[in-house]
Recover the amino acids of this structure.
DNA sequence: CATTAGCACTCTAAAACATGGAGTGCTAAT
DNA sequence: ATTAGCACTCCATGTTTTAGAGTGCTAATG
C-alpha cells in the first residue's frame, strides 16, 4: 500500500466503515463491517486494513479498544466519491412533495427562497439555508420614485426576478413632479435590462463623462440614481426550522447546539461561505475545518447554486454535523437547486 | 395565618426565598435564608413558616429533604410586588450604553426594532423579542405607484413611522401614466394622515356609497387601493441573539432548549402573546402556564408596549425561564420601552 | 406561647468500586 | 496473504458507599 494511493480493497473497506458510521453514529468495529457487507473477508483482515487506514489518516480511534471513526480526510474521500461517481436515486414521492411545496408558492422570489430553506430543513432534518441572488447580479426591470416629502423621495427598484428594493433619498434641491417624471423616464430608458453590476460600471462612468455637458436634469437624475443603488449589500440568509434538528445524536450536546447557533446567528458567516462558492456550478461540500470559520469547524455544509431566468445566481445549502448523511443530503440539495432553477426559469 | 392573606413576616420570608432561588438557581434551605438576610430569626422558625408557605402553594419541595422552590403562584406574588412597589435603579453606564445603541441607528423603524431585540438579549442574557407597530395602527403618509408592466403596478405605501410596504397589483384594465397620476393624487388627498384602520372603515364605506356616482377613474382608484391594503397581516417578530442565552443553568437541558426554539420559531405564537397585551400600558409579566401556549409553559415573558409619535403601538419583551431575574429584567424592559418611545417621538 | 436548640431521620449527589462486553493487536496456524 | 484464537484494554453500565444538606419533630427557653 503506497502512501499516495489506496488500493481498491482499502477504499471499499473505508467506504463501508464511513457508511456504517454515518448510519449507526457510533464507532465501527471490524465485525460490524463484515456483518453489514459481504466482502468475503474476516474481521481480522478488516482490522489489519483499518489499522493501515488509521496510519494514513482516513480513520481514527477514540481509544485503544474502540471501533473506528472517520476523520475529515476520510469524509473528504467519501464525499468526493459521492459527488463524482454515485448518486442515490431520490424517492419519487419525495420528489413529488418537493415539487408541490415549491410550486405552491406565489411567484415571489423571497418567499420562494424562504420556503426552500424550510423544505431543506424538513426533508433533511438538518438546518437548511438559502440566500436570494446577490444584489449585484439582479437585472433591473423598472425604477420609480414616490414623493415622500419636499426634500425626500423614495426610490423603488423592481428587478426582473421580482425583487423590490426601496431606498429613501434626501434631495439636495426641490424637484417638481414634472421633473421627477422626466427623470424616471430617462432612467428607465437607459437602465432597464441591465444588471446592477453593469449599470454601476457602464452608466456611472457615462455619468462622469456627461458631467460637464448635457441637460442639468439628467445630471441630477444620475446623481440620484447613484445614491439609490448604493445600498448596503445586505444578505438575506433564510434558515429553515431548527427545532427538528437536534434529535440527532450529533447535535446532542449543549456545546454543539451552542456552536450551531452561533454559526447560524452570525448570518454573514454563512453568507460568506455561500458567497465564496457562488462562482462554480453543481453541489459542493465543505467538511469541518474546511470551513475557515471557527464556529463552523464541527459542521459540514452541502451547497449548490441555482440560477434564475436571467443571469443571477443564488445559493442554497444544508448545514449538518461532519458525520451527516451525505448520501441523502447531496442528491437532495442537488435536486432542490435544480427544481428551483426550473421554477425560476418559467415565464 | 389565614388562607386569604399572608402576614408580613411570611411575605418577607417568601420574598427572601424566591430572591435567593433566583440568585442561586437551586433549592433554598432555611439556613441559606438566615445567612443571606438578617431577619433575626433562627432557621427553625424559617422552616416552620416555609412549611406554611408550601401548604398555601407559594413554595414547593423537590423531595423531602431538599430546600424549597418557588411555585408559579409564588413568582406571581414576587413579580407583582416588583411591578408595584419596587424598582431596582438601573446602572447609569448601562443606561448610557442602551441610549447609544439605539441612537446609533438610522431612523428606520424596522432596523430600530431589530436592534432593540438584540439589545434586550445582550443586556439580559435571555431572549429579547420585539415587534413593530401593528399594520392596522400605522398612519399613512403617502401612496405611490410604480408601473411594473402593462398589466401590473407596484403600489408603495409609506407610513409616518417610516414603514414602507410594497404590493404588486394586477390591473383589470390598462392605465396610462396620466390616469395613474390622477389616481395617485386623489388617493393621497383623501387618505393621508389616517391610520389604516380608519381608512379601511371610513374610505371603503365611502367607496360603496360613491360606487354608483362619480368619476369612473375614482372608482378604479378605490378598487386598486382596496387591493393594495389587503396584505396579509404579517408579523415581523425580531428575536435577538440566542447563543448567549443558554449559559444559564435554567436552559441547561436539551429538552428545554428544544422547547425554547419551538416557541421562538413559531413566531406567530409570540406575536399572539405580544398582541394580546398591546392594549394596556406599562410592563406586564406572564409566568409559565399563564402563557396559554404549550411551548411557552416553562418560560416567562416580560413585555411592554412602546408608542411612536402617532398612535401606533409596538411591543417588546424578554423571554426567559420562569425563574428568570425579574428584578433586573423588569426595569430593563420598562426603560427600553421608554427609550424607544422617546426616540420615536423625536421629530 | 412563640421561638429555637438539638437531634434523628431522609434523600440525593458524588465518589468509589465491580462487572461484562465490545473491540483490539498479536501470534501462530492455514 | 489470510484468519482463527486468545490475551489484553478500555469503557459503559450498574451497584454500593459515603458525606452532607436539609428537614420535621420534640423538648427546652425567655
Amino acid at each position: 500500500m503506497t502512501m499516495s494511493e489506496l488500493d481498491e480493497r482499502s477504499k471499499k473497506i473505508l467506504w463501508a466503515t464511513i457508511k456504517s458510521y454515518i448510519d449507526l453514529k457510533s464507532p465501527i468495529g471490524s465485525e460490524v463491517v463484515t456483518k453489514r457487507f459481504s466482502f468475503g473477508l474476516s474481521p481480522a483482515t478488516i482490522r489489519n486494513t483499518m489499522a493501515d487506514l488509521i496510519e494514513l489518516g482516513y480513520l481514527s480511534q477514540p481509544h485503544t479498544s474502540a471501533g473506528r471513526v472517520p476523520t475529515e480526510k476520510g469524509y473528504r474521500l467519501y464525499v468526493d466519491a459521492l459527488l463524482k461517481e454515485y448518486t442515490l436515486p431520490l424517492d419519487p414521492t419525495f420528489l413529488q412533495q418537493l415539487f408541490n411545496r415549491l410550486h405552491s408558492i406565489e411567484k415571489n422570489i423571497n418567499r420562494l427562497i424562504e420556503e426552500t430553506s424550510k423544505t431543506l430543513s424538513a426533508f433533511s432534518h438538518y438546518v437548511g439555508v438559502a440566500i436570494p441572488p446577490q444584489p449585484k447580479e439582479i437585472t433591473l426591470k423598472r425604477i420609480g420614485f414616490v414623493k415622500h416629502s419636499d426634500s425626500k423621495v423614495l426610490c423603488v427598484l423592481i428587478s426582473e426576478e421580482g425583487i423590490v428594493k426601496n431606498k429613501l433619498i434626501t434631495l439636495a434641491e426641490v424637484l417638481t413632479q414634472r421633473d421627477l417624471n422626466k427623470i424616471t423616464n430617462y432612467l428607465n430608458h437607459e437602465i432597464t435590462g441591465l444588471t446592477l453590476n453593469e449599470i454601476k460600471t457602464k452608466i456611472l462612468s457615462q455619468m462622469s463623462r456627461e458631467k460637464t455637458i448635457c441637460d442639468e436634469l439628467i445630471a441630477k437624475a444620475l446623481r440620484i440614481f447613484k445614491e439609490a443603488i448604493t445600498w448596503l449589500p445586505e444578505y438575506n440568509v433564510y434558515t429553515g426550522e431548527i427545532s427538528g434538528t437536534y434529535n440527532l445524536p450529533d447535535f446532542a450536546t449543549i456545546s454543539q447546539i451552542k456552536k450551531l447557533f452561533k454559526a447560524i446567528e452570525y448570518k454573514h458567516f454563512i453568507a460568506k461561505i455561500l458567497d465564496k462558492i457562488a462562482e462554480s456550478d453543481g453541489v459542493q461540500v465543505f467538511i469541518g475545518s474546511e470551513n475557515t470559520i471557527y464556529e463552523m469547524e464541527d459542521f459540514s455544509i452541502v451547497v449548490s447554486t441555482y440560477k434564475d431566468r436571467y443571469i443571477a445566481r443564488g445559493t442554497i445549502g444544508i448545514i449538518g454535523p461532519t458525520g451527516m448523511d451525505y448520501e441523502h443530503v447531496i442528491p437532495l440539495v442537488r435536486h432542490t437547486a435544480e427544481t428551483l432553477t426550473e421554477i425560476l426559469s418559467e415565464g
